[in-house]
Write a structure and sequence with these properties.
The protein is of the alpha/beta class. It has one domain (1-187): Rossmann fold (3-Layer(aba) Sandwich). The chain has 6 helices and 7 strands. The chain has a 7-stranded mixed beta sheet with strand order 3-2-1-4-5-7-6, sandwiched between helices. Helix 4 links the parallel strand 4 and strand 5. Helix 4 (107-115) crosses helix 6. The longest helix is centred in the first third of the chain and has 13 residues, at 52-64. It starts with a helix and ends with a strand.
Length: 188
C-alpha cells in the first residue's frame, strides 16, 4: 500500500483522509508515510473499524510511533449514524479488505455510505480480494469472505453513485499481488 500511495496522483499537502475498516491501521499509516515521504503535510486523517480489538492494536501503533494527529472511532460502514457528523467532506477515502465481510446484498449500500462522505471531487480507493482459483479456498472458504468479480464490483460502485471506476495496477515490484486482489479508484 505504501508503494501504491507513493506513486498516487491523489496526494497533496492538507489532504483530508478517511480509512474505512482500518483494522490495525495499515492503510492509514501507509497513506501518512507516503505523504511525509513526499514532503507533504497530512491534513486530518481519520479511521474507523467495527472491532474494538483492532482499534486497540491501531491505537497502540499510534502511541508507539508518537503519532497524535490521527483520530480513530468504532463504527459500522452500514450505520452512518455511528460516525461523528463532522467526519465528512474527505479528499480521499481508502478501504482495504473490509468490503469482503459485508453481506453481498449490502455491498452497494456500504459504497454509497462512503461516497456521501467524500467531497464532490473526492476519490475512493478500494483494495479488495478478487474471486479466483486461489482466493476461493483460502479467503472465501477459510475466512468466510465474500469474493467479487471485476464486473460485480464495477456495477456495485456505479449503483452507489460513483461516476468513474478505474481498476489500477499494483506497483511493478508488487505486481504479484494482482493475483490476490484489485485496486479500484472511484470518483465521486
Amino acid at each position: 500500500m505504501r508503494a501504491y500511495f507513493r506513486r498516487s496522483p491523489h496526494l497533496r499537502s492538507g489532504l483530508r483522509g478517511l480509512d474505512a475498516g482500518c483494522g490495525s491501521g495499515i492503510a492509514t499509516l501507509a497513506l501518512r508515510d507516503a505523504l511525509l515521504s513526499k514532503g507533504m503535510v497530512p491534513g486530518s486523517l481519520r479511521a474507523f473499524d467495527l472491532t474494538p480489538a483492532m482499534l486497540d492494536r491501531f491505537h497502540s501503533k499510534l502511541q508507539k510511533r508518537a503519532i497524535h494527529n490521527v483520530d480513530i472511532a468504532q463504527a459500522d460502514v452500514l450505520d452512518s449514524q455511528g460516525l461523528p457528523a463532522e467526519w465528512g467532506n474527505y479528499d480521499l477515502i481508502v478501504s482495504a479488505s473490509m468490503f469482503e465481510y459485508l453481506p453481498t446484498e449490502r455491498l452497494s449500500e456500504g459504497f454509497r455510505a462512503l461516497r456521501l462522505r467524500l467531497k464532490p471531487d473526492g476519490k475512493f480507493v478500494l483494495f479488495i480480494t478478487r474471486r479466483n482459483w486461489l482466493t476461493r479456498p483460502l479467503i472465501g472458504r477459510w475466512w468466510r469472505a465474500n469474493l467479487y468479480s471485476k464486473q460485480e464490483l464495477e456495477e456495485a460502485l456505479q449503483k452507489a453513485g460513483f461516476t468513474s471506476v478505474t481498476f489500477s495496477q499494483f506497483p511493478m515490484q508488487y505486481r504479484f499481488l494482482s493475483l490476490w486482489g484489485y485496486i479500484i479508484e472511484a470518483k465521486n
